[in-house]
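mind reviewing this stuff:

——
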Amino acid sequence: MSIQTQCDPVEFAQDLIRIPSITPIDAGALDLLHGHLEGLGFTCTRYPFGQGEDRVDNLYARLGTDAPNFCFAGHTDVVPVGEIGKWDNAPFEAALKNGELWGRGAADMKGAIAAFIAALTNLVATGWAPKGSISFLITGDEEGPAVNGTDKLLKAIIAKGEVIDHCLVGEPTNPDALGDMIKNGRRGSLNAQLTVTGQQGHVAYPHRASNPVPVIMKLLTRLLARNLDDGNEFFQPSNLEVTSINVANTAHNVIADTAKAQFNIRFNTEHRGDDLKDWIRKEVAEVQADFNGEIDADLRVTGEAFLTNPCGFTDVIQQAVEDITGRRPELSTSGGTSDARYITHYAPVVEFGLVGATMHQVNERVAISDIRTLTEIYTLVLQRYFA
């Protein structure tokens, strides 16, 4: 075992960004982490799931055996780069320009992984050791279907007796400036695909057809008419957004036989996914009763709403951010979903990382100074957590 000395977070972030780990291809990103963590004395275990093109590699690494176990969770996979010609710098060049680090994954979330790696490495180099354990839970399937990633990884390590006491996820939680926001919860997400099948016919003879278009409009109107809730202390109101209505028909004088629509519900802790499914199915059944055709509703909950109540753990992170940046971050449940939705079933979890203003965009980039400041914050979090 070779003990690491100092680690520069910007250089480590560059090394990660130069690896084109577009979901589900790892391309060596986990090898880089694996090797570095082994050098620090971590026990590293790889967990590949899936077959063929769907195969995803994952990493769990732990330093120490005692409780409490402080876990840093994240992902090394990144979204596709889009049109390369629109990038000012090659997306995997990891260029440093105008005080910023450019590249796919700089914000989401290789920069944060590098900051935590550097914080831990530099602490260990001083002779510091945690009064407990530190672990890394890293997946290569967060930006994709999330089928062979964190969910399966957690189940596998828990089955082996692992216990996570608290977890920090390095997602880019800050909207505009480092220190804006900590995510201590997320809304749930329900995706729905409606398919109404009637009978094709001539518009002049509607009695010989069964038009699916008014039916799908009626169903959507009923769903949209409900005020899901007014929010609560920690969450904004739930919302249902219709994202597509499609009737594959270009003729004015033909009644189509099929109409489709899709929508998403982002819901707070006033609801459970199964309850929303039951409500949608009830609305479908009532509309179906007056329709000479079929209505199919494909309903999938991709994550339940969850909340980590303000506690000593959130206080440690909030105070560390404030002490380093001079700004007290807001505890928020806004935004989309993350892999914290799986972790919440096993341990209190919060998210804090870099500024996410350019994540998933062409010319993704973060301020170099923010990477270094985040390293200071993570350092202080570790020191205080184990104090």
